[in-house]
C-alpha cells in the first residue's frame, strides 16, 4: 500500500478497485476511494458465499478474517469495456485492410496505386500508434479510439486495500431484513476476532504495474535488530451493541496503553476492569485495530 497521507488522519485509508478482463486478463489501473471504516456483512451458512435472512446465519459464528475475505472476494460484472481487447480487435482489422491494400496496389494502374499507397500509409500509421497505447485505461478515455466500437466482455471486480490507515475500523453489519416477519432483525452470531491481525493478504503492493497486481508481501523491515512484519495490527477497542435492531445501548472495551495490555469496560460513566477472555467473547459491533510498529 501507499505511504501515509499528508493529512495524517489516523482512520483514513484507500480502498482500491481492481478490474480484470476475463477475456484477455488485463488489469486496469487501480482506482482508489478514501474510507474511514469498512462495513462487513456476516456470511450466511449453506452456500458459503451468499447473504440471507437471519434463519440462515449460523449461531456458531465465524471469524473476522472470513468476513474480510467475503468483502474482498471478486465478483463478475457483465458488459465492461476492455481497452486491450478493443485495441487488439482494431489492429487485426487494420492489418487485414493493410494486407488487402498491398495486394491490390500490385494489380491496378499507377494513378490508382498512388491513392491506395496513401491509404496504406495511413492504415499502418494508425496501427503503429495503437501499438504504443497504455492498455490499463478505459477504451472510452482514449481519443484514438473515439470512433472505434469498444469491445465489451465479462470482468472480475475486486476490492483491495491500497493504503492502510494507522487505525483500522471494522463495522459488522448486524441489522438484516427478515423476510418471514417483514421487519428488521438483529444478527446475534458471534464473530471471532484476533488480538493481532495481519492485513498482508488483503492488500495490493505496487498497484497494477505492468497490468498485474502483485500480491507478494513486501520484505519485513528490521527495527532494533528484530524483523517487523508489515501490515500487522493490534486490537485496541471493541464496541458492543446491547438491545434490538431498533434500539439499545452501546458499551466499549478499551485497551489501556499506559497499563500494558490491560483492558477496561466502559458503559456511560461506569468503568470496570475487564479480562482478555471477556473482550474476545464480546458480540462485537465495531472493532478498532491500531498499527503495530
Tags for this entry?
single chain; 293 residues; alpha+beta; eight-stranded mixed sheet; four-stranded antiparallel sheet; 4 helices; elongated; disordered N terminus
Which class of secondary structure composition applies to the elements?
Answer: alpha+beta
Query: What is the CA-based Rg, rounded?
Result: 27 Å
Query: In terms of quaternary structure, what is this?
Result: single chain
Helix and strand element order? EEEEHEHHEEEEEEEEEEEEHE
Global outline: elongated
Strand content: 35-45%
Percent range of helical residues: 10-25%
Helix tally equals 4
End-to-end distance: 16 Å
Q: Spans with pLDDT under 50 lasting ≥5 residues? A: 2-6, 46-53, 206-215
Mean pLDDT: 80
For the largest beta-sheet, the strand count, sense and barrel status come to: 8 strands, mixed
Please report the total strand number as a whole number.
Answer: 18
How would you concisely characterize the structure shown here?
The protein has 293 residues and is an alpha+beta fold.
Walk me through this protein's architecture.
By secondary structure, the chain is an alpha+beta fold. Helix content is 20%, strand content 35%. It has 4 helices and 18 strands. The strands form 5 sheets. Strands 3, 7, 11, 14, 15, 16, 17 and 18 form an 8-stranded mixed sheet that branches. It has a 4-stranded antiparallel sheet with strand order 2-1-6-5, with helices on one face. Strands 4-10 form a two-stranded parallel sheet. Strand 8 and strand 9 form a beta hairpin. Helix 2 packs antiparallel against helix 3. Mean pLDDT is 80; it is low at 2-6, 46-53 and 206-215.
Amino acid at each position: 500500500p501507499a505511504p501515509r497521507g499528508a493529512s495524517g488522519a489516523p482512520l483514513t485509508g484507500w480502498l482500491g478497485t481492481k478490474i480484470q478482463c476475463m477475456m484477455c486478463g488485463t488489469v486496469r489501473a487501480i482506482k482508489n476511494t478514501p474510507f474511514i471504516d469498512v462495513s462487513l456483512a456476516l456470511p450466511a451458512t449453506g452456500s458459503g458465499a451468499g447473504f440471507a435472512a437471519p434463519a440462515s446465519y449460523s449461531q456458531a459464528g465465524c471469524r473476522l478474517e472470513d468476513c474480510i475475505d467475503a468483502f474482498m472476494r471478486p465478483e463478475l460484472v457483465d458488459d465492461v469495456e476492455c481497452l486491450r481487447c478493443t485495441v487488439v480487435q482494431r489492429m487485426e482489422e487494420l492489418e487485414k485492410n493493410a494486407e488487402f491494400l498491398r495486394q491490390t496496389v500490385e494489380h491496378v494502374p499507377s494513378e490508382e496505386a498512388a491513392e491506395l499507397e496513401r491509404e496504406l500509409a495511413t492504415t499502418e500509421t494508425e496501427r503503429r500508434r495503437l501499438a504504443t497505447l497504455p492498455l490499463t485505461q478505459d477504451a472510452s478515455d482514449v481519443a484514438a479510439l473515439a470512433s472505434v466500437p469498444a469491445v465489451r466482455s465479462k470482468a472480475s471486480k475486486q476490492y483491495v486495500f491500497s493504503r492502510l490507515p494507522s487505525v483500522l475500523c471494522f463495522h459488522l453489519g448486524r441489522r438484516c431484513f427478515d423476510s418471514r416477519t417483514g421487519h428488521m432483525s438483529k444478527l446475534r452470531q458471534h464473530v471471532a476476532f484476533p488480538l493481532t491481525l495481519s492485513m498482508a493478504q488483503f492488500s495490493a503492493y505496487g498497484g497494477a504495474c505492468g497490468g498485474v497486481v502483485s500480491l507478494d508481501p513486501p520484505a519485513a523491515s528490521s527495527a532494533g535488530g528484530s524483523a517487523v512484519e508489515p501490515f500487522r495490527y493490534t486490537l485496541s477497542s471493541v464496541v458492543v451493541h446491547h438491545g434490538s435492531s431498533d434500539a439499545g445501548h452501546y458499551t466499549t472495551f478499551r485497551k489501556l496503553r499506559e497499563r500494558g495490555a490491560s483492558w477496561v469496560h466502559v458503559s456511560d460513566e461506569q468503568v470496570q476492569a475487564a479480562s482478555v477472555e471477556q473482550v474476545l467473547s464480546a458480540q462485537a459491533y465495531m472493532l478498532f485495530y491500531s498499527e503495530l510498529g
